[in-house]
Amino acid sequence: MRKMGAERVQNFPLYSKKRTGRQFGQRINVPKPKILVMKKTALITGASSGIGAATARALAELGYNLVITGRRTNRLKSLNDELEEKYHVKVHVLGFDIQDRFQTQSALDGLPETFRHLDLLINNAGLAAGLEHIDEGDWRDWESMIDTNIKGLLCVSRIVSQWMIDQHIKGHIINMGSIAGTQAYENGAVYCATKHAVHALSQGMRMDLLKHGIKVTEIRPGMVETEFSIVRFHGDKDRADKVYEGIEPLTGEDIARIIAWIVTLPEHVNINDIEVMPARQANAFLTYRD
Ligand SMILES: NC(=O)c1ccc[n+]([C@@H]2O[C@H](COP(=O)([O-])OP(=O)(O)OC[C@H]3O[C@@H](n4cnc5c(N)ncnc54)[C@H](OP(=O)(O)O)[C@@H]3O)[C@@H](O)[C@H]2O)c1
After folding, report:
1. pLDDT in tens, 164-218
2. How many folded domains does the chain comprise?
3. 191 tagged catalytic
4. Tens of pLDDT along 230-262?
5. Ligand 1 close to Cβ of residue 181 (< 6 A)
6. Index of the ligand 1 atom closest to the CA of residue 127
7. Which of 64, 185, 191, 244 is catalytic?
8. Where residue 147 sits, what CATH number does that domain have?
9. 2, 93, 123, 129: which is deepest, by most CB within 10 A?
């Protein structure tokens, strides 16, 4: 039996084994199976905005207890209050900079025991910084993308997959890739390289974790309107708004709905990867705008 925390309850239909000696045709008084719903726990990186925050809401609605992470702890705390009040789930806020592996390790080490039994990890924290040709790129932008999108994802995955294995949890890891993970585009070489890394890591992790029954899914969205472009353009909101002009982009909720579908599929089914775009977008290069 899987090792369980205090929070965890097991599906335990209770059937009476008592023989009744009843006659043929006699009405049987079968006690209703008492089914206790098993609470699952998910950790979402980058839950302070956009896709991560929407996913936290969708998973809370499904009854997941949650660990929500990011640097902006004020936002995480108000999300915590909202989710606990609306969905009656348990939420734990972890504030850390995922670029720093020592900070990440110590934040995860400090998780209370009840939140360490993770069934689901959503590796979502990430960013694009800058949009320039390779000869004009800013080294700090490149470092923040590499340290967050690749090294941050690796650090959290290393720790959480080990926990899942040690506790014999048949868990699920969902990596937030991008269409930039299979298509490179002009001015985006380094962001595309980090998401190509996420694509390769997802395939490799799926093989490495196969024997432990841990599923790995990669989601590759096209254009989603979140704070993504504001971050990419270093706070220039007008420039960010132009990205979505004349097109109806995806929303964080669209991606969250897909995640909710993926995690409610039967245990023997895995979506390896999924590419999703606005209807008005064909690929990383071509959109049809009003
Ligand atoms: N929006 C799109 O068009 C799009 C398309 C394809 C893929 N994606 C991917 O989707 C994921 C989520 O992005 P989003 O669109 O939802 O953007 P977003 O609204 O900017 O959210 C990004 C999240 O990542 C967290 N994060 C960033 N750097 C971090 C760091 N150093 N340490 C800890 N957390 C960090 C942010 O939290 P804090 O700032 O509070 O730390 C925030 O919660 C990213 O991996 C992105 O590459 C987005």
Report:
1. 999 999 999 999 999 999 999 999 999 999 999 999 999 999 999 999 999 999 9
2. 1
3. yes
4. 999 999 999 999 999 999 999 999 999 999 999
5. no
6. 47
7. 191
8. 3.40.50.720
9. 123
